[in-house]
Structures are given as C-alpha cells and as structure tokens.
Design goal:
Blueprint lengths: L1 H7 L4 H29 L1 H5 L1 H15 L4 H29 L12 H27 L6 H17 L17 H5 L7 H10 L1 H18 L6 H20 L12 H23 L2 H29 L5 H12 L5 H8 L5 H21 L10
C-alpha cells in the first residue's frame, strides 16, 4: 500500500516513508508490552484484544486516505496489533503445540506453526491488498474493509481456543519492568547465534519486495501489482521452506542458521546484480532466493528462542528476538537515504560483506552454548 500512497501524491514522500517507521514503532511497543504481559497474565487475555486493535487501525487507515493524523494513528494501531499477535499469539501457538494440547506435536512444531502463520498472513494480505489497490474499486478503503471483516471472524474464533498459561501475577515477584529483563536474553547462544541472524529475517524481505520493486518500477507498468506479486512470491517460498524444517534444523549445531545465511548471501549478490541491470527477471529471482532466506532465518531463530526460554519468559524473550528482527525492516529506508552518496549495487554488496561476517561468527559458535549441553 505504500506504493499506492506514493502514486496518489496526497502525502509527501517523506511522510509515506515515515508511515513505515510509525508502523514499526507500533510493532515494537506491541512486542515489548504484550510479550511480558502474556508471561504474567496468560496468553489468551493478552491476545484477544489484538484483532480489536487491528480492526480499529484498519478503519482509521481507510478513513485517513487524505489525512496525515488519522492514517498515522491507524498505522500505529495496526503495528501495535501485529506486535501483540507476534508475541502473545506466537507464545500461545507454541504452548498449544506441546504434548499437553497436541500429542502429535514435535519439539519444533511451535516455531514452525508460528512462523508459517505469520508468513502466510503477510503473503495473502500483501497480494490481495496489492491487487485491489491496483485494479479494485475504492482502492484506499476496500483492502481495509476486508481486513475489518476478517478481524471480526478472528475475534469469534479466538474465543474457542483454550488458555495455555494460567495467570501468574499473584505468584510472580517484581514489577512489569522487571519482566522486560528476560534472563535468557543474556544467554551466550542468544547473543552469539540468535541476534547476529535476527536482522536478516526482515532484511531479506525488505530487499526483496521494497528495494527491488522500487528500482525496476520505472521500467515496467503497474507498479502496485508488480510489488504485490514480488511480495507474494518471496513469502510463498518462505512459507514453503518453513514446512520442511527437518531439511535444515539440527539440535546440536547452527546448521540451519548457516544454511539461511548462505542463501541470504546468494540473494544479496543477485540483488546487487539486479540493481545494476534493472531486470524484472532478476527481481523475481531475488524474491525467490531471499524468500527462502527469510523463511529459514525466521524459523531457526524462533526455534532457538523457544528452546532457550523458560515458560515464565517465553513471551518476553520472543519479544526481544522480534525487536531485533525488525532492525531489518529499516534496511530500505536506510539505503534510500544513503543512495545520495552510494549506488545500490555498492550498498547491496556491502550487505553481502556484513552477511559473510555474521556467518563467520555463527559458525564459530555453532556447536557451543547449546541449552541441553550447557
């Protein structure tokens, strides 16, 4: 929808870019507040308001097509709802994927289901919104009206899902602020294996479906549809690879993380070449490769987090992890600003160098500080 707002010329380019930042701020608040709250009060009670907040956000965005304050508020609320769902909802899914609720679940089923739910939602939402914004009636409102209806359905559906964590607020000592300080966030494996990988989760998607479409859109028509198609393609491959974690996840090493970063490096190299040649085919290849990188880095990172965290800090540690993944959300904005001094091929190749350094660090600590062996 950012491409749609740029094309409408109602808001300044700076404000349209800032909408992404407002969204990210809302996500960060939702992550850091909802995660620890769900550890203290339970998953269900914290997750149930999320679709209500999302519904209000969509209504405001639909109303604010020409109003900066209204669309700003709507974007913030949409981000807040997503942050709540990612932490409280993700922790809920993880616990629903335990033997107590699902005897057939595997140890990594929670991470797999959380990752696939988020990826699938991103893919379907982006594709439908993009197609409606390009060719549908009332493009500034219809995508959000559909989301309002889906949010109402979600509210009804969530009412039937059982609580997995009983409220611990009468037993847990300390303030809410103390809940933010997750002990496992200091674990060496979290610091040396999980965090170096985290920014590449959404760094992959940012390059694939924000930077690439922006670089090629002047050479092709229908920029909104192209962006939606590239987004859906990247996330479809991410969703697909998340269905087969046994291909790359290993309990006693960081093999999956290494595979993910190798794919990221290949994707960034192709992205640098595409930025120079301005090729639609190249952009599609980047979407496929970085979509795979996104899928693997997200799932392996979540799996590490879920085996590091105790039940009392699962939501909190998940929140911290996601905050670091959203560092990659700012990659397109940073590169846009730096493009006044550096070319995109140069900047994307610099990203390759950073990814190689991350891979080297993770490789050194691949088999160290594993919880079962600590």
């Amino acid at each position: 929808m950012m491409v749609f707002y740029r094309g409408e010329d109602v808001f300044s380019p700076v404000f349209v870019d800032a909408l992404l930042a407002f969204y990210a701020v809302g996500i960060a608040i939702g992550l850091l507040v909802a995660g620890p709250l769900s550890d203290r009060y339970g998953r269900r009670v914290v997750m149930l308001p999320a679709p209500i907040v999302a519904l209000i956000g969509s209504i405001l965005i639909a109303m604010g097509e020409t109003s900066e304050p209204i669309i700003f508020t709507g974007r913030m609320l949409s981000g807040l709802a997503l942050g709540m769902a990612m932490t409280a909802g993700g922790s809920w899914i993880k616990e629903l994927s335990s033997p107590a609720f699902d005897p057939t679940a595997k140890p990594n089923s929670g991470a797999k289901r959380s990752a696939m739910a988020m990826t699938g939602g991103f893919a379907v939402g982006a594709l439908i919104a993009g197609l409606l914004a390009e060719w549908g009636p009332i493009p500034g409102q219809l995508p959000y009206m559909i989301h309002v209806v889906l949010s109402i359905v979600t509210i009804v559906g969530l009412m039937t899902v059982p609580e997995t964590r009983q409220s611990a607020h009468l037993k847990v000592k300390g303030s809410f602020l103390s809940d933010l300080a997750s002990p496992s966030a200091k674990h060496p494996r979290f610091l040396l294996v999980v965090l170096p990988l985290a920014p590449w989760v959404f760094g992959c998607t940012g390059v694939a479906y924000a930077i690439m479409p922006a670089l090629i859109q002047n050479a092709y028509g229908n920029p909104i549809a192209i962006t939606a198609g590239i987004t859906a393609l990247a996330l479809a491959f991410g969703f697909g690879i998340q269905q087969f974690p046994d291909l790359y996840w290993r309990n006693h090493s960081a093999f999956g993380q290494q595979v993910g970063l190798v794919i990221v490096i290949i994707g960034m190299l192709v992205a640098a070449w595409t930025a120079k040649t301005v090729s639609l085919v190249g952009a599609l290849i980047v979407a496929v490769v970085l979509g795979l990188g996104y899928g693997i880095t997200l799932l392996t990172g979540l799996t590490e987090v879920q085996r590091l965290a105790s039940p009392d800090e699962l939501g909190g540690l998940t929140a911290i992890y996601y905050v670091f993944t959203y560092v990659g959300f700012f990659f397109p904005m940073i590169l846009t600003r730096l493009s006044e001094w550096f070319s995109y091929p140069v900047m994307l190749f610099a990203g390759v160098v950073v990814a190689v350094l991350n891979l080297a660090l993770i490789t050194v600590f691949s088999r160290k500080f594993i919880p079962a062996e600590s």
